[in-house]
Amino acid sequence: MNSELYLPAKITNITVCANQEELGVLTYGSVHHYQPTQDKQYVSLTMTKKGMDGYSSGSLHPIFSQNLPEGFNRRFIAEKLARYAKVNDMYLLALQGELGIGMLSYKSELTLPKVESLTLNGNTPIFN
Asked: Is residue 102 classed as helix, strand or coil in its secondary structure?
């Protein structure tokens, strides 16, 4: 395995960011809990109430779960990582890191190596 790769057995704490700025912390113990760490920018329009004491639920809030892989993709990722970690919603968010679709990005103890650029026509990289 590459020395830059670190796969923890589970992810219980993720820092949620937008535009490189921390919005809050998402944790998972027996429930999912999101706690805003500032009040200038909100993670969701449904979480804008002043003095809001975060969000706690057994299920992940829709703002986080809307971009999780489903079906075959989710099973494929879970099978490939099964010997290294317990892949759940938190782990899938951590795997997205800064490469997810949408405004949110996630920081955690998970560190992945840089990926090689792929091309469609042999000239132009798909990812930079």
From this structure: coil
- Residues of the chain with pLDDT > 70, as a percent, come to 82
Instruction: Point out which residues pair with 105 in neighbouring strands.
Output: 17
* Cα 61 to Cα 66: distance, rounded to the nearest angstrom: 9
Q: Which residue in this structure is represented by tokens 């930079």?
A: 128
Q: How many CB atoms lie within 10 A of CB 58?
A: 7
Contacts 24+ apart (CB under 8 A), 81-89: 81/7, 84/7, 84/9, 85/7, 85/8, 85/9, 85/10, 86/9, 86/10, 88/10, 88/11, 88/28, 89/28, 89/32, 89/60, 89/64, 89/65
- Look at the pTM and tell me if it is higher than 0.85: no
Structure confidence by residue, pLDDT tens digits, 19-40: 889 999 999 989 999 998 888 8
Q: Alpha-carbon distance 56 to 90, whole Å?
A: 14
